[in-house]
Amino acid sequence: MDEHRLTAELKTVHRKLDRLLFYSQLILQEEFLMGIELDNLAAQVRANTDLEQSAILLITGIADKLKVAAQDPAKVTALAAELKASATDLAAAIDANTEPPPPV
Question: DSSP 3-state assignment of 71?
Fold first, then answer.
């Protein structure tokens, strides 16, 4: 094999290795970004789960209070005010923990 042909083949191998390294770096970068996105998703799932559990406790508590207050109009009025305050707090918590949908 002559020196010119060997040099050309080495350059070809070198270009291919450079391409492999380039794409390997891109893959590593994408994996890193996917890891960040996965961590963000896990955090959002935890926040949503916590919020859902809080809502379940709130609703269960309301049902229990309604049973107790059913025969007392003053208690029903107080419970209605409490429900309104709780609804406002719940709406604020949902707004704070819900990311807006991506633009279409």
Answer: coil
